[in-house]
Amino acid sequence: MTIRETILTMITEIAQKQKKTLRPLNDDLELLHSGMDSLCLAILVAGLDDELGLDPLSSADDDSFPVTIGDFIKLYENADAPVAG
Amino acid sequence: MTNPDTAMKPVVVNGCFAWLHTPPNEVKDVAVLLCQGAGQDYLNGYRSLRVLADGMAQAGYPVLRFDYPGTGDSGDDHGPDLWSAWRRSVAEAADWLRQVTGARSLILSGLRIGAALAALEAASRDDVAGLVLFEPFLHARGFVTQLVTESRLRRKNPDQSHASDNLGSVTLGELKFSAGDVAEMRATDLAQLSFQKPLPVKIFSQNNAAKLNTRLESWRLQEMRLSCSGFENFEALLRPNQHSGEPEIDTIALLDWMDREVPHGIAQSGVVALPAALKSENWEEKIIRFGKNARLAGMLCRPRTESAMAVLIGNSGGNPRHGFARFSATLARALAASGIASFRFDFPGLGDSTHLENGVDTQSDVFQQDRTEDFSAAIDALEPLGIRHFAVHGLCSGAFHAVQAARSDTRIETLATVNLPWFTLRHDAPGVNSAAQKAIAAFRQRNMRVLFLFSTDDAGFRQFERHFGTGGCELGGDPEMRIVVSDIVDHELTERWMQEIAIRDTIDFLQAHAADNARNIGRREMPGNSSREA
Questions:
Q1: Which range is least confidently modeled, B98-102, B164-168, B349-353, B368-372?
Q2: Are B68 and B74 a contacting pair, CB within 8 Å?
Q3: What is this model's ipTM?
Q4: How many CA atoms lie within 13 A of B364 on its CB side?
Q5: Which of A37, B57, B327, B508 is most deeply packed, by most CB within 10 A?
Q6: Considering only CB atoms, which chain A residues are within 8 Å of B240?
């Protein structure tokens, strides 16, 4: 699975477990308006750390903290990209 | 199915509040230490861990479940490094459990970060006979990541709370981990543990059972007998605690595994544990069991001086009596420091109070269940202790039930609410016949003093304004009613400084006469008698 697929699958699973109704997921949807609350997102991030070995949010400052689903996916894709040079 | 009548004794272990569950008949010589989750995992899993402990005790295992330092009902005196204090507390609880029960060996068990603490402790001891882990964080850094993310997302005022995270420390609600704690947690990887002897290990995981089985190959190389299963029987441990009417945990398969895999005999000595009180400079706390068949549990917090008044605090949502981010425990201790007693208690089917349906202890509905009898039973229990004046306090659903109790029991003189969602569960059209207006009329008739504290953007405040005008102005001029609206606190009072605002307002209200508005210094007056945080 790609990082995008992993993230979207995990969001759906967590929302189901936490009994949250999700809005249709797209890149422009704001994370906190997606239907997930802060706990769901925290579980998602911890799960992605476990699944992908990536934890980009811990080092993201407030300016780069993702607002939308698209930002969130891009942050993880960039964290997984090989460092140039 | 568990037996709700299994004995459960409140005890104190080195400043940590704990419950010791003792078997009703034959006692095994293996005792179980249950390590709670933390933060939301703690709140969601609290009641179900009690049910699990009861099930284990029914099967003959003495069980201790306890609150880590700085959490739940435990004391606050834990030094600067919370993670280190938690690790010490697990070690001390394990020693205490063996000493008090006479057990030859222990099963260490935990939920989420509690599972990591249990595994860490198990690796350092030679008296452990088994390990049972529920959805463990293999890397404790996953827990840190969860805390950091939740903390940032919950932040209402980034400038005020971000400072705590600047130097590598992390704060979320009552949890405040130093930079040293965080560094140690980030370096903790359960797969790297070396155990003193091979152990049977049972792991339950929602989605990762197969993966954990692979990642813990290093444990197999130490001849640990590892068994990973799905979470079907334990979903209730992680379920949001406001959900009721869903399956409870099922302990049968786990108890079979324990009986089969963990060597045990019959204990030669009985369990000897005396109930104890937790004390500090300003307060003393002890559990009181009350209500029909003493199936309800509450924590009486008394100041060091006599207090003829007590504030009754029920659950908010499905959280145990300590409240979200431990607000109710913090409020209780601040009240005691101001000379006021309090009694924070669990409604039936929440926290440590049982609720029987067809003989089974079940979770009750957060809103639908009538709690008025429970408040009255609490007052009945406190009156013989010399308490003559009663106030009720609640947040969200707790505020709703406090309103109902104040209407129902005329012994209640004072009502204090935080983010009251509504006055009735039915549709309540504004007007003279609304439930809201009737409640206020009833309170006025009894000269009750009432505090409504809201956060500005709370849905409950919008409801309140529908009934009583902007800022509640239609209640203006009534010296017995005080309305405080804050721009900076959130619905659940997530952060400590938000709690301090609510606590200050509550204590001011309880101590001062309602007509005395002089205390509202630094606030912007709203229409009528209300005030707003400046």
A1: B164-168
A2: yes
A3: 0.75
A4: 23
A5: B327
A6: 18-19
Collapsing DSSP to helix, strand or coil, B312 comes out as strand
Smallest CA-to-CA distance from B450 within B412, B418, B414, B476 is with: B414
**Which amino acid type is present at position A15?**
A
Residue A19 to residue B243, Cβ atoms within 8 A: yes
pLDDT of res. A61: 67
Q: Which residues does B39 contact at the CB level (< 8 Å), separation at least 6?
A: B146, B147, B150, B172, B173, B175
A71 to chain B, any CB pair closer than 8 A? The answer is no
Query: What does each C-alpha distance from B425 to B77, B295, B397, B441 come to in angstroms?
Result: 41, 27, 11, 19
Q: Angle at the Cα of A48 (from A42 to A51), degrees rounded to 5?
A: 145
Distance (Å) from the alpha carbon of B160 to chain A's nearest alpha carbon: 14
What single string gives the DSSP state of each residue in B373-441? HHHHHHHHHHGGGT--EEEEEEETHHHHHHHHHHHH-TTEEEEEEES---S-SS---SSTTSHHHHHHH
| Euclidean distance between CA atoms B490 and B157, whole angstroms | 10
3-class secondary structure, B246: coil
**Tens of pLDDT, residues B498-528:** 999 999 999 999 987 433 433 443 343 343 3
| Residue to substitute from B40, B112, B145, interface A, most A β-carbons within 10 A | B145
* CA–CA separation, B219 and B196 (whole Å): 11
SS (H, E, C) B71-92: CCCCCCCCCCCHHHHHHHHHHH
pTM of the full predicted structure?
0.90
Mean pLDDT across B169-182: 92
For residue B236, how far is the Cα from the chain centroid?
16
Q: Phi and psi of B257, rounded to 5°?
A: -60, -45
- Helical segments of chain A, H only: 3-17, 38-52, 56-59, 69-80
**B115 and chain A in contact, CB less than 8 A:** no
φ, ψ for residue B55 (rounded to 5)?
A: -65, -40
Gap between the Cα atoms of A40 and B329, Å rounded:
26
Confidence bin at B229 (pLDDT 50/70/90): very high
The C-alpha atoms of residue B50 and residue B335 are separated, in whole angstroms, by 28
CA angle B411, B460, B494 (to 5 degrees): 90
Between B146, B154, B239, which is nearest A46 by CB?
B146
Distance CA B153, CA B32 (A): 36
Indicate whether B162 pLDDT > 50: no
> Listing from the earlier edge strand, what are the strands of the sheet with B7-13?
B7-13, B16-22, B63-66, B30-35, B105-111, B128-134, B200-204, B225-229
The whole-number pLDDT of residue B164 equals: 47
Cα distances (angstroms) measured from residue B110 to each of B118, B184, B271:
6, 19, 22
Whole-angstrom distance, CA of residue B152 vs CA of residue B519: 33
Q: Phi/psi of residue B12, each to 5°?
A: -125, 125
**Helix runs in B171-251, H state only:** 179-186, 209-215, 217-220
Q: What is the pLDDT of residue B290?
A: 96
Amino acid, single-letter form, for residue B488: I
B239 interaction partners in chain A (CB closer than 8 Å): 17
Confidence of residue A57 (pLDDT cuts 50, 70, 90): confident
What tens digit of pLDDT does each residue of B184-226 get?
A: 999 999 999 999 999 999 999 987 788 888 889 999 999 999 9
